[in-house]
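Objective 1b. Sequence-to-structure analysis of DUF2905 domain-containing protein.
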Amino acid sequence: MSRTLIAIGILLVVVGLAWPWLTKLGLFRLPGDIAIERENFRFYFPITTMIIISVVISLILWLFRK
């Protein structure tokens, strides 16, 4: 269990450091994501992105269980 938590922590750090480059690629602006931008306000709710990430993680975990 501790190795899993350490691996997840390292993965989160790597994704956090790579975030500026990932957003430039346009991976997180999919159709279905809610983005509201005004003068002094920006709101972004990535519904479609969260669903896709959830499906991918579920498939990976399902494959590792077998």
